[in-house]
């Protein structure tokens, strides 16, 4: 299941894709991009527009509406799971707890875990799941919504493969990636959520991302 990734085939060399500026690390920006020309003070300049996470709407474990606006000004990590998953999800949850414990006091950081089984994973089920993990407050949201919308945003925007598969353990197949998103809602990294070393790197990369200015240009 770890290998089911649509757009992150280059993640296997993600550590080599970062660039240094002096002693500071700059994370790459993933996804599509396009050049846009604009006139500034009579001169034509070319700006790069990067792929961003689009508008969305889900419900979290408290029954609150969570939209893209709820994450304005935040760095966040997104992943996909389901509460009855018998394989990689428990490992992912334990590893995500390390990220949560490191940044839960940071008011501008969030974790967004999307269930891919919204029929079973109701709001009360998600709340029970969060409570079992010891998660409280508003740093880590477990969200559910329409199945089609969840799958669509997973594959088209977060570039993570998910699907229902009756032959798989638990009935679903999904990639176990933690996707790092910056304040401008651009993807800045993807990490195998079952690999402690990559999760440790994610924690370090969040620190690097927090040190960046709100607007950063990556060549």
From TrEMBL:
Cu cation binds at residues 85, 89, 174. It holds the Pfam family SCO1-SenC. InterPro entries: SCO1/SenC, Thioredoxin-like_sf, Thioredoxin_domain. Residues 47-211 form the Thioredoxin domain. Disulfide bonds join 85-89. Keywords: Copper, Disulfide bond, Metal-binding. It comes from the Bacteria. GO terms for molecular function: metal ion binding. Belongs to the SCO1/2 family. This is SCO family protein. It comes from Mucilaginibacter ginsenosidivorans.
């Amino acid at each position: 299941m770890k290998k089911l990734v649509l757009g992150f085939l280059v993640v296997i060399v993600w550590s080599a894709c970062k660039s240094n500026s002096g002693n500071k690390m700059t994370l790459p920006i993933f996804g599509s991009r396009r050049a846009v020309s604009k006139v500034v003070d009579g001169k034509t300049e070319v700006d790069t527009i990067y792929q961003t996470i689009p508008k969305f709407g889900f419900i979290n474990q408290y029954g609150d509406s969570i939209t893209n606006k709820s994450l304005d000004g935040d760095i966040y990590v997104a992943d996909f799971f389901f509460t009855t998953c018998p394989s990689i999800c428990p490992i992912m949850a334990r590893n995500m707890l390390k990220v949560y414990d490191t940044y839960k006091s940071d008011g501008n950081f969030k974790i967004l875990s999307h269930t891919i089984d919204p029929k079973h994973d109701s709001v009360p089920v998600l709340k029970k799941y969060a409570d079992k993990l010891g998660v409280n407050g508003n740093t880590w949201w477990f969200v559910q919504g329409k199945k089609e919308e969840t799958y669509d945003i997973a594959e088209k925007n977060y570039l993570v493969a998910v699907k229902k598969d009756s032959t798989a353990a638990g009935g679903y197949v999904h990639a176990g990636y933690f996707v790092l998103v910056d304040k401008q809602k651009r993807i800045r990294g993807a990490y195998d959520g079952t690999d402690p070393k990559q999760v440790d790197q994610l924690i370090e990369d969040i620190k690097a991302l927090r040190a960046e200015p709100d607007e950063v240009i990556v060549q």
